[in-house]
Amino acid sequence: MRVRIGDIAARLGGELIGDAALEVQRIAALDGADASSITFLAHPRHRSQLATTGAACVIVGPALRAAAVARGAAIVCADPYLAYARLTQWWAAQQRGTAAPGVHPSAVVEAGAVVAASAAVGALAFVGARARVAEGAVIGAQVHVGADAQVGAGTLVHARAVLARGCRIGARGIVHGGAVIGADGFGFAPVPEEGGRWEKIEQLGAVAIGDDVEIGANSCVDRGALDDTVIADGVKIDNLVQIAHNVHIGEHSALAGCVGVAGSARIGRRCTFGGAAMILGHLEIADDVHVSAGTLISRSIRKAGVYSGVFPFDDNAAWEKNAATLRQLHALRERIRALEKPR
């Protein structure tokens, strides 16, 4: 694919410096770009690469305008990283094209299901009774859309994903392959008089997902026990994430790979969780909380901010004593300093 940088600048709304007719064929990283590439510079720490990159055109911010012009063609945007993101969306759409509307002959659409005329249902997919697939939605090959489930307008469900019975996802969502939305939550009642076996608690809720949500490959969002599990608008969930039953995740929060959220936890808006962070059940996380990778959140967080910490496991009684002591460590240090201060 060959694209004029003048057309790219017009699409991004940036200031073009250079020949508008110059063509590029790919988007590349700064250090891997050649004369057929467009690249971007979003962080000042990579500024040294600006002079050496072989790119035909570089997307930069206003602060690097002069340096970019000195080396050649440039597109100046207020936020070059955001401009890069939007360029990748457009580029991918041009390369992928759009799925042809209609239902593949090998797909199964049960009686009472409604598939919009502009939607696409791929090979060997299943759409259950009374399910609804809205305008422009794409149901990939071997996808399972359960009875009474709903797929919003323009949402893309990749191959082999599952949207189980009664679960709903809004408009413009993306569900990657292998994701399972609406499996049973982990609910069992012990039966001590029968050797300690477990009695299953049926999960009677569903999963309600808002608009513009992306769910990564092989991630799981469990259905609620009684009420629904809720994923609000704009949430981004990476691969291999576990969201347990009755969790509520607020608007525009983002969870990186291997994060686990236990049952009935409530996460606020615009929160972020680094890879392998863990949130225990029934906790409340305030808006604008940012949790570092590998951190175990074992109590509610009421105040916005950045939280980090890894504590080795131990015998539970010893661990609780050590954790309590660790919380007092700073205060103890200050007391010791005060005692050691010369009189």
Number of domains: 2
Poorly predicted ranges (pLDDT <50, ≥5 residues)? none
Helix content: 10-25%
Name the CATH architecture of the largest domain: 3 Solenoid
Strand element count = 39
Main structural class? alpha/beta
CATH homolog superfamily of the largest domain: Hexapeptide repeat proteins
Radius of gyration: 25 Å
Word description of this protein:
- It is a single chain.
- This protein has an 11-stranded parallel sheet with strand order 8-11-14-17-20-25-28-31-34-37-39, with no helix packed on it.
- It folds into 2 domains: 3-96, Udp-n-acetylmuramoylalanyl-d-glutamate--2,6- Diaminopimelate Ligase, Chain: A, domain 1, CATH 3.40.1390.10; 119-307, Hexapeptide repeat proteins (UDP N-Acetylglucosamine Acyltransferase, domain 1, 3 Solenoid).
- The protein has 343 residues and is of the alpha/beta class.
- Strand 22 (188-191) and strand 23 form a beta hairpin.
- It is flat, with a radius of gyration of 25 Å.
- It is built from 5 helices and 39 strands.
Short description:
This protein is α/β, with parallel strands linked by helices. It is flat. The termini are far apart.
List the main descriptive attributes of the protein structure presented here.
343 residues, alpha/beta, Udp-n-acetylmuramoylalanyl-d-glutamate--2,6- Diaminopimelate Ligase, Chain: A, domain 1, UDP N-Acetylglucosamine Acyltransferase, domain 1, 2 domains, eleven-stranded parallel beta sheet, ten-stranded parallel beta sheet, 39 strands, 16% helix, flat
